[in-house]
Structures are given as structure tokens and as C-alpha cells.
DNA sequence: TCAAATTTTGAAACCGATTTCATAATTTTT
DNA sequence: AAAAATTATGAAATCGGTTTCAAAATTTGA
């Protein structure tokens, strides 16, 4: 037998011969209610199995206590760490989360944004899809003054919003520099859509490093890819057939790097001896391939916590949004076998 | 300048000199409103930038058009495929999604369930955490008649709910049989918490296969693990030191299998020649390790679509929930190098 | 002890859409 | 053309908390 009737504050009020107003206040720890009554209210609420009706509440106060999150894909170590971080902070602050994935499609990202808008999230956290150019789907949020905060995949041209990112240029520089220091002289850079900051900046770093060490930069050494599994295999095989063979690879993500490496090995090319490889993200896969992959680590959980905290602080008025912020968080190169030319014992 | 005032059906009504009731009907395609008025309503709504207030709506009709999803972890290929499937079907049917991860902790799963309950989801989709024993956190849903549907990680003892799973016993049997056919005579099975159906059933399949081929079963050949990265390395090294060495490994997931393989190789053990390995899940990692991993594939997206469709059908009254269903969907063994003892050609 | 200050409480309006029931407008029947 | 049937619209109640404003109860001060 299912109980179908919901318990409301009116039920509690009736039972205690007090007004619903007082019950509401009691339930919300409003200071203007005596300990005794609050205590009694809590007890009766408990006994009756009361649960607050979020809709009534949301309708009256004009906010939802809900944060929206749009990410490109859920199944990466990085993204799910970020999410864990966001969830932690959001939970502690009493915020709910609506999460959706754009699956790297700008079109789906637009749909997601619209859904979030209709759901009236109090704030939005976004990491852009691969091919998002036009950002007008966030205009409704801007117009309404709903804060939108971007992380990792951002669009810095955007006038008034906060970005939380790593220093991709520096990371790109370090990765490339490392390869050079390992003796590489002809380094390919495999990357994604160059309109996306993360890829554009890493490329910049790559170029800077080449210049700093007096190596020439060739347009043809930069391979722009969709970064999906299929192109990874193709690209890997393609590289294996190059003549002359490059001696270094700086790849925009670990999965792609791992697949390339596999493809190269199948063609009898030795890593790192013939080609040294550096990936990006410190995904689990970087640790299980043979040889283990040198990569750039950046702290997902921490980033998520920071993003969420920042957004919530803003929502609670602690921090005014006056100016655009760009917050840069730490990243580091993790050196493993795939790039070590002269193993130091 | 942000516009702060929300447009309501009253604004539309005023503008057209009609009643809010008619506007509401017009917006909802209620039959009792003439094409002409509906048309006008739609136009004005558009012009004014009206967006329906979900809370008012939810408050009045007593449902949310929202589905809750609780999964153990977001960052696996399987889970994110399932989610994509769920999202597709839910979107098409006009349902929103609230997604949360239990991070394999029963405690967090309870918290998630409570949040979902407070959010008044119309239905709940769950894949259980690693160590969830007690299912009482779903009681509120059962009591209220809110449908809960389980997939993959289920608890079949549960009286009245639907389960959508693969035939883990069969998959376990096939994996083990394959190893036996490749000449393995001493096969270890590495698995997770045996109270969880997926692991218990695969173990059963493993035992059945041994029996069918006249091989002895030893308790000590079953290694129960937390299945995290750290234990994977430890277990791998442990196995490498076994004496005598087993000649086959059937591992409960690809990540763990990949790490084990790596650990074995580091100790100079050849795969598949010394030890043949079969994983589970067909995660991307299974394709990039060396040698590629034999594994069990099961269709996440399809499973997600099925789960969502089933739930929504039920919610819309198409399908009565009268009896418990168990729906079994197809899975298959994908043979790759990690288990091929006698490469054909 | 009585007035002033402070703390608690309640009545009623409100948030915005939905829906019932009645009425007005239109169409069909005879 | 009048009556009957059908269709379209509106008034008002409702969903369940929150909040303003005023009043009641209690405490403090002199």
C-alpha cells in the first residue's frame, strides 16, 4: 500500500496548533523562532515524514539552488575528477547539480544550454565542445545576469565571465622543451581544433620552445585532428610511413598518444628510441601503455572545487563579478619512459 | 543592462486581452483552443521572450518530468555510453535528467538517493555502488510508488523492480571456456565484491566452465579485489611471483586487466605465451595495450536507451509495472591477442 | 510595578501555471 | 429561424512554501 498524500507544513502547523508561517521559519532555522517551538516543529516534521516541496519553495524565492554543468564528455578521467570536485563543493553548500554532456557537438551544447536555462539554474559551469564557435546560446544567461563560468575549454574573447584554466602555453612549452632536451630535432605536434584555446595555446608553447632552442618551425609539422579513436589509428599509421621519420611527438591527449604509439609499434618503430612521445592529461591509459607515457598532469578535482567555490561565492554575494577573472591553476609535466632517450639508470 | 523581470502568462494574457487560462492552454496545445488564438499566443510569447516557469508548473501538476540517474562512476566508457543512451531517449520524450555518481561508496549512494527523492524525480535509474548491501535508501521511492529501475549492477533479491542486465554467467563461462580452449589449465579469476551480481555471476560462469572441461576449481584461484588502480598493480606483481605461475587470467574489468598485464610484463612474463588474459567491458584501454586485450563487449548506449524507454513507458502508463522484469541484453566475447595462444595465421 | 524594548507569532498576500466548472460564442440540426 | 449541440473562453481555486506587516507575548529597565 503506497501512501500517496504528501505531508505539508500545514499538516505540521495543524498538529501543533501554530501557523504555517512559524513552521516554515522553524524549518529554515529562522532566528525569530524560539528553540522550543523549533524543536517541536522538527520533531513533528520527522514523525510525519515531511519533505519540503522544492517547487513551492523555488517558486516563491526566485532561485533554484541548482547549478548546471555542461561538459564535452563524461568518460575521461579529467572530467570526472572535475565533476567530483564540483559535486563536493556544491553539496556542502547545499546546491544541486544538473549535469549534461555535449558529446563534443556544438549543436548539442546549444540544446543543453537551453535546457539549463529553462531549468533556471542559478549558475552555469561550462567546458566548451570541440567545435563551438558561436557563444550566443549563453546570451540568455548573460542577459538575465545568471553567472556562467568556464573551465579548461574556454573562449577568452568573451567579455564578462570567469575562466579557470591551466597555462596551456607553458605546458606546451615544457612538453616540447623536454623532447628537445631528450635529443629530438624534428617534433610533430598533433592537436585539435585550433580555435579552441587549449589547443591554440599549446601550439604557441610548442612554437616558442622550438624558437628558444633554435629549431625551425614547419606548418606541416602540426597535424590538426578530430582527436577521435579512428583518426588516431590513421594518424599513427601515417606517421609511421613518413620519410624521414620525425623523432618526437607532442600529442594533445593521452588517448590519442597511446593509440599513435600502438600504431607506430605495430610498424616496428621503437618508442622512445626512434620516436619519443609526450601526451597530455595524465589519463589512466598513460600508465598502462608500454612504454608508459610522459604526459602533462593537471588537477581535475581541485579545478572542479575551485570552479564551484568561485561560482557559489559569487551567487552568495561574497564576491562581486565586476571584472573578468582568469584563474590559472598549476599543471606539471610527468616524465615517463615514452620520452626518455637516455634513461638515467 | 540586464532585464530582471520575468515574462509570465499573465503578461501574454494582458497583451492579448484574453485570460491566463487560455494562454496556458494555448501554450500546452490543449485542444479546446482555436488555432487562431493559439497562433497569436505563440507569437506574443515568442516576442516577449516568455519561458515557462517549471516550478509553478511542477507545483500544480504533481510531477517533475525529471529522471534521476545514479551511477557508480562517470569515467568509464560503458557508463558514459549508457548515459548517452538514456539522455537521447529522455530528451526525445521531454524528460530532464539529474545525474550523480556514488563513486563506489554506499554512503554517497544513500546521499544521492536522498537528494533525488527531495528533488521529486518522477523515476530513478540506478547502477549500484560496489559495496551497497542494504537497499533501504530506495524505500521512500517504493513507498511513494516512484519507479526505480536498475541496470548492470543490480540486486535481484529486490521484490518489485525491473532489472536490465547482461548474462554475466554466460559471459563468464565464455571467457573461461575461451581460455581453456587456448590451452590454459590453471586460470585465476580476479573479481570484485562477490555480493554484487555482476561479479557473483561471472564467477559462477567461470566455475561452470572449469567443471564442463574437467578442470578443478580452487577457492584460492579467485582473487577478490577492490578493483582500484593501486590494488591492480599489487595484484599484478603478486601474480608474477606465484609459483607455479598460472597460465590464464580472467579479470573483471579491462582497466584492472591492463594494469595486471603491465605489471606482469615488467617482471618479464610474456602475454599471452606465459599467461593469457581476458578482461571485461571493452573499454578503450583494451585496444591500446600491448598486446590488445581479449574482452567482453556489451552495448552501453543500447542498454541506456532500453532502460530509459522502459522507465518512461511505465511513467506514461503504457506499461504496467505489475511484475518484476529482468531484461537481458546481448553481450559478446571479443578475442584479441592477449589470449591467443595459437595465432591463426 | 508599569512602560519601553525585544522576541515570537500569525494573517494574508504572493510566486506562476493548471484545471474545474460555468458561461459565452459558434456551429449544426431540425 | 429557433433549438440543440458543440466549441472556445474566463473566473477562481489550487499547488505549498515564503515573507511582509502587524499584533501578541515576553523580557528588560527604571
TrEMBL record, chains A, B:
Pfam families reported for this sequence = LacI, Peripla_BP_3
Taxonomically, which superkingdom? Bacteria
Q: Where are the transmembrane segments?
A: none
GO terms for MF? DNA-binding transcription factor activity; transcription cis-regulatory region binding
Is-annotated flag, keyword Transcription? yes
Q: Where is the HTH lacI-type domain?
A: 7-61
The keyword DNA-binding belongs to this UniProt entry's keyword annotation: yes
Q: Which PANTHER family match?
A: HTH-TYPE TRANSCRIPTIONAL REGULATOR GALS, LACI-RELATED TRANSCRIPTIONAL REPRESSOR
Protein name (database record) = Transcriptional regulator, LacI family
Q: Which organism is it from?
A: Thermoflavifilum thermophilum
Amino acid at each position: 500500500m503506497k501512501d500517496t498524500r504528501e505531508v505539508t507544513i500545514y499538516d505540521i502547523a495543524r498538529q501543533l496548533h501554530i501557523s504555517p508561517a512559524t513552521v516554515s521559519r522553524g524549518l529554515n532555522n529562522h532566528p525569530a523562532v524560539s528553540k522550543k517551538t523549533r524543536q517541536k516543529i522538527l520533531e513533528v516534521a520527522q514523525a510525519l515524514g515531511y519533505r519540503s516541496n522544492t517547487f513551492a519553495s523555488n517558486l516563491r524565492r526566485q532561485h533554484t539552488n541548482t547549478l548546471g554543468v555542461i561538459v564535452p564528455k563524461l568518460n575521461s578521467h579529467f572530467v570526472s575528477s572535475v565533476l567530483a570536485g564540483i559535486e563536493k563543493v556544491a553539496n556542502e553548500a547545499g546546491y544541486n547539480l544538473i549535469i549534461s554532456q555535449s558529446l563534443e557537438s556544438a549543436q548539442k551544447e546549444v540544446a543543453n544550454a537551453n535546457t539549463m536555462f529553462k531549468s533556471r539554474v542559478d549558475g552555469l559551469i561550462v567546458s566548451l565542445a570541440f567545435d563551438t564557435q558561436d557563444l550566443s546560446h549563453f546570451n540568455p544567461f548573460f542577459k538575465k545576469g545568471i553567472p556562467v563560468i568556464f573551465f579548461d575549454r574556454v573562449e577568452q574573447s568573451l567579455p564578462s565571465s570567469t575562466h579557470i584554466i591551466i597555462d596551456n602555453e607553458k605546458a606546451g612549452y615544457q612538453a616540447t622543451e623536454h623532447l628537445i632536451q631528450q635529443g629530438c630535432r624534428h617534433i610533430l605536434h598533433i592537436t585539435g581544433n585550433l580555435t579552441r584555446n587549449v589547443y591554440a595555446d599549446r601550439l604557441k608553447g610548442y612554437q616558442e620552445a622550438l624558437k628558444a632552442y633554435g629549431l625551425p618551425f614547419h606548418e606541416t609539422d602540426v597535424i590538426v585532428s578530430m582527436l577521435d579513436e579512428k583518426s588516431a589509428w590513421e594518424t599513427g599509421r601515417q606517421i609511421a610511413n613518413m620519410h624521414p621519420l620525425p623523432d618526437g611527438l607532442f600529442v594533445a591527449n593521452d588517448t590519442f598518444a597511446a593509440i599513435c604509439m600502438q600504431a607506430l609499434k605495430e610498424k616496428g618503430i621503437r618508442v622512445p628510441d626512434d620516436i619519443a612521445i609526450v601526451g597530455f592529461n595524465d589519463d589512466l591509459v598513460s600508465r598502462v601503455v608500454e612504454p608508459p607515457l610522459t604526459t602533462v598532469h593537471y588537477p581535475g578535482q581541485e579545478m572542479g572545487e575551485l570552479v564551484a567555490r568561485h561560482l557559489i561565492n559569487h551567487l552568495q554575494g561574497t564576491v562581486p563579478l565586476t571584472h573578468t577573472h582568469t584563474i590559472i591553476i598549476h599543471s606539471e609535466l610527468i616524465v615517463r619512459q615514452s620520452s626518455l632517450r637516455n634513461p638515467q639508470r
